[in-house]
Amino acid sequence: MILRSFALSDIGRVRPENEDSFLCDDKQRLYVVADGIGGLPEGAQASQLAVAVLRESVEAIADPATVNYRHCLDEVNDRVFLLGQIISARHGIGTTLTGMHARNGQLHVFHVGDSALLRIRGGESAYLTTDHTLENEMRARLAAGTTPPTILAEHRNALTRCIGQPPPINGEFTVQDMQPGDRFLLCTDGVSRALRMTDIARIASEAADPESCAHHLIDFANENGGFDNATVVALFVD
Question: Are 107 and 119 in contact (CB under 8 A)?
């Protein structure tokens, strides 16, 4: 299979700083987005460090088939956590981290936080990650038969997991198949929450290449207010 990719990040129309970071490495076939947590100090530094350490961890392994993504995320979390103790011992620093590593016809997915991985296949779209938010955690408890506490509307998108929290980190790991024609999108929430799934699927399906797909998604997010930083890594499978 041939993979085509493109990444783009934009500050948006409201935020004073872009705290998103990304990796789009066709040589390693490694693709990542990270969104620094704005309520904590140095969100941009947190996301940049997370992406850099993740890249170092994967590149240091000679045989890609032996990559242990759980260990990689542990290393990333430890480094961000330690930096947080230096920068802000009381509050720490934090970032989301969602990525995919393509090898042997499969995508190895790792995920912490609320940046998202979406797949568009045959015109049908699907989230391949679940946001680690208070609202989703309460839903999981309800589905398990436990009555969750009431949460205020303004807290429903609060993160329950992030890179930079005290170890150990509880990441989400899956393996996804790839088929010719698939289009995978890594998006920070400045895109995934600004646009409806139907609009994201339409734009990705109609795009001739990953570059135009990323530009159109971010332009649309800004047209809808640009309330947050917006980052997209688009991966097309041929």
Answer: no
CA atoms within 13 A on the CB side of 53: 25
Q: Give the whole-angstrom CA distance, residue 51 versus residue 33.
A: 8
Token pair 């934009």: residue = 10
- With beta carbons less than 8 A apart as the criterion, state whether 105 and 2 touch: no
- Over residues 63-112, the pLDDT tens digits come to 888 999 999 999 999 999 999 999 988 889 999 999 999 999 999 999 99
Q: Rounded to whole angstroms, what are the CA distances from 192 to 38, 128, 186, 212, 220?
A: 17, 13, 9, 17, 11
**Which residue ranges form the domains of the chain, and what is each CATH number?**
3-237 (3.60.40.10)
Tell me: pLDDT of 126 over 80.
yes
Instruction: State residue 62 phi and psi, 5-degree precision.
Output: -65, -40
Residue 69 is inside which H or E element, if any?
helix 69-87
The whole-angstrom separation of Cα 24 and Cα 235 is 9
- Read off the pLDDT band of 38 (50, 70, 90): confident
The structure tokens listed for 214 are 């990323």
Compute the distance between CA of residue 25 and CA of residue 5 in angstroms, rounded to an integer: 9
Distance (Å, whole) CA 168 – CA 103: 27
The token pair at 33 is: 């987005």
Single pTM value for the model: 0.93
Give dist(CA 222, CA 227) in Å, integer.
8
163 forms bridges with which residues in the sheet?
Answer: 95
* 57-to-28, 63, 121, 172, 199 alpha-carbon distances in Å: 12, 12, 31, 18, 35
